[in-house]
């Protein structure tokens, strides 16, 4: 049938997300995206727009996919904040350990690339990072931490979460990553006891 797209948009978007995740925004060319998705440049532009618009869609896909998992992990924060934060980190550690996925985190990579991103893409990357922080802050407030402590631990946990992605890319072992998480969990446990 004339005019009908002959490819799966979701699969193409997922392939583009993996390409950006693997190589980063600046190091991903349109040729790379074409190879990853199996689409020529013309099809990429007509389906997704320019590189910035495609990247924004990929960042949104990533944030939604893992954001839902983070939300589920933090759902028990009111009754057991320590277990909820541990489950939050488990989402990241499971993603890092998945051999089918690139190392690191698309949001962490995007945050590190903010100086070379267009203002609109940079703002979007900052929003994705802020969402993780606000998700943690809300859960920790529900978990009986004072506003100040919830704020402090949310910033810390978000920073630790992003550092796990960076450390995994740098070759840290699963045991090292778990020990990093352990320090944060121990500190949170102590704060809740205090």
TrEMBL record:
Source taxon at top rank: Bacteria
Q: What protein name does the entry list? A: TetR/AcrR family transcriptional regulator
Q: Which PANTHER family does the entry link to?
A: HTH-TYPE TRANSCRIPTIONAL REGULATOR YJDC, TRANSCRIPTIONAL REGULATORY PROTEIN
An example of a GO molecular function for this protein is: DNA binding
């Amino acid at each position: 049938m004339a005019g009908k797209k002959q490819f799966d948009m979701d699969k193409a978007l997922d392939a583009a997300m993996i390409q950006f995740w693997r190589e980063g925004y600046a190091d991903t060319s349109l040729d790379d995206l074409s190879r990853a998705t199996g689409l020529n440049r013309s099809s990429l532009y007509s389906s997704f727009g320019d590189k910035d618009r495609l990247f924004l869609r990929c960042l949104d896909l990533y944030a939604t996919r893992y954001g839902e998992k983070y939300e589920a992990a933090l759902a028990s924060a009111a009754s057991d904040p320590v277990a909820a934060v541990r489950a939050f980190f488990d989402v990241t550690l499971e993603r890092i350990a998945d051999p089918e996925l690139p190392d690191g985190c698309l949001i962490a990579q995007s945050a590190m690339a903010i100086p070379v991103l267009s203002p609109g893409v940079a703002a979007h990357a900052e929003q994705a990072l802020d969402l993780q922080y606000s998700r943690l802050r809300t859960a920790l407030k529900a978990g009986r931490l004072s506003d100040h402590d919830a704020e402090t631990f949310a910033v810390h946990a978000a920073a630790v979460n992003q550092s796990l992605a960076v450390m995994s890319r740098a070759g840290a072992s699963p045991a090292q990553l778990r020990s990093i998480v352990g320090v944060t969990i121990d500190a949170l446990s102590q704060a809740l006891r205090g």
